[in-house]
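Changelog entry: the APC family permease record was regenerated in this release. Current contents:
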Amino acid sequence: MTDRTTSAAEELPGDELPDGAKPGGFGLSRVLGPAHIWALGVGIVLVGEYMGWNFAVGKGGAYAALIACWFAGILYTCVAMIDSEVTSTVAAAGGQYTQAKHIVGPLMAFNVGLYLVFAYTMLEAANAITFGFLIDTVANLTGYQGIDQRPFIILSIMFLAWLNYRGVLATLTFNLVITAFAFTAIVVLFLAAVLKPGAPLLAHAALMEGGLPYGWLGVLAAMHFGLWFYLGIEGTTQAAEEVRSPARALPFGTLAGIMTLLIAATLTWYVCSGLMPWEYLGQAGVPLFDAARLTGSPLLMVLLGIGTMFATLASANGCINDASRAWFAMGRDNYLPSWFGAVHPVYRTPYRSIIFLIPIALTFALGAPLDQVITFSILSGLLEYTFMPLNIILFRRKWPLDSIKRGYEHPFHPIPALTLLALCAVTYFAVFLGYGTQLVAMVVFYVIVSLWFHFWRYRFVDRASQFTMPWHRPQGY
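Regenerated structure tokens:
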């Protein structure tokens, strides 16, 4: 059983946190503030505005991508609201995994932990692939042809892993700077396109003539990549054990993050769909950079080129942070070998988990197609979002609002939970239309590892020490 420490400031629900790892008796450092939480959530996601979302245009046209953007925005707003309440109360490393351990049960917790690790590790690999592609694109523009992308993929992952190894404060401060730059670049491009004197740059009416080329089925299919606008905002929960005041910082950073992404997503769609025909936009590799090139401004080209690289690095950086925290938390609870539950005695980071996940990310980054890696990440995230409505409903039922203190109470319960569940069902069908085989394969994979956990690994878990929150235990726990 781990010891609990309380904040030096005041006793808020999220300030009562378990210590870090037991092997050396060291805990994770509580050094982060709300801005770091914002940088973690937005930093992971903002690359989706720079690339990937536009495949929704190819699925159903520009209007379909806009509808998918807003419906996915509703889905992730529900995610952010639910996460803000539960995480500000169950404030420990592992995020949704730790929530599932306390609220639902060990088998669900094990699966949710794997969803998190695979979602972030696959997204990290996708970002590394994209970074290599960007280096190749820049080299082609400057006259260097046929550059080998693999060294840049390896170097990007290794550098960011080293940064995470050295400390969470430096890691997320770095994310804060480059994420703010990437978001500012989107706003500057929008203002330049809208306020350009003389002949207008944007031509939505001419470029989007024809409305929905594939009808409403195209809108449904577009939901698959509509998630890419926001995928990863739920990663703010992984920093719960490393913030100075979880009850305030987590809700503020998460909700400010989803607001930022809603603005960035809408501005991105508006600019890109007004500068490029939907047929080209639907298959563009770097749509925001292409939009900057179409403005004819060298300054905007440089700004959006740097912004694209920064968004890619910020996303990969945040993914390493989040995947390692989930893996570390599972090791600390003996859901995985306890060796992974160690904290570095100097840097106070889960260094073994960080190192262990590097070769897995490199394997997928160097050997798997980008669309398959992206879909693996999306599906793992979608499975996690499906768990969240059950999680919040059981949380409210077992610990009503007046029974424990919460850092944040999301409104209109259970409407956000039911809305999230309905949108997840729609998105499953959308993914099945294009990647049905991969969806079935992933479900089979998670069933197999669930059986492994139930019949083998669970015997090593100390059941009596699983409940670490200072609440009354619900009946039957």
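The radius of gyration is 22 Å.
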